[in-house]
UniProtKB/TrEMBL annotation:
Annotated InterPro entries: GlbO/GLB3-like, Globin-like_sf, Globin/Proto, Globin_bac-like_CS, Hemoglobin_trunc
Gene3D superfamilies: Globins
Superkingdom as given in the UniProt entry: Bacteria
Cofactor (UniProt): heme
PROSITE patterns in the cross-refs: GLOBIN_FAM_2
Keywords carried by this UniProt record: Heme, Iron, Metal-binding, Transport
Organism, scientific name: Virgibacillus alimentarius
Protein name per UniProt: Hemoglobin
Similarity comment text for this entry: Belongs to the truncated hemoglobin family. Group II subfamily.
Length: 127
């Protein structure tokens, strides 16, 4: 009998997996020439907020809302010029981080699809 999980968060192993994913992701972001201009040099706080957000986004505890209020992701990202090229770079880093973090399908695909929709929504600047 296969184990049933209520959320993606539970299915992938909870916070430890989110932590690993975010660490692997920001290691790439911090070196990506299309992304470094819109991210701070020290990604510690950015990564911490991402851990809170992804925990909540994938069905875990509502850590982001408890600390920072409603996510309002598009509004929070408006100060940064997010072009189609930057969206693609962000997704490229996330795809590689998902693989490195050994998140298995169907969860890896589900996560990537949800994050692709979010990344598309964040675009605010033409090429």
């Amino acid at each position: 009998m296969t184990q049933q999980f209520g959320t993606i968060y539970e299915a992938i192993g909870g916070f430890d997996t989110i932590d690993r994913l975010v660490t692997n992701f920001y290691r790439r972001v911090g070196k990506h020439p299309a992304l470094t201009p819109i991210f701070p040099e020290d990604l510690t706080e950015t990564a911490r907020k991402q851990r809170l957000f992804l925990t909540q986004f994938f069905g875990g505890p509502k850590l982001y809302t408890e600390e920072r209020g409603h996510p309002m992701m598009r509004r929070r990202h408006l100060p940064f010029p997010i072009t189609p090229q930057r969206r693609d770079a962000w997704l490229e880093c996330m795809k590689a981080a998902l693989e490195e973090s050994e998140i298995e399908d169907p969860y890896r695909t589900a996560i990537f699809e949800k994050l692709t929709m979010t990344a598309n929504h964040m675009m605010n600047t033409p090429s």
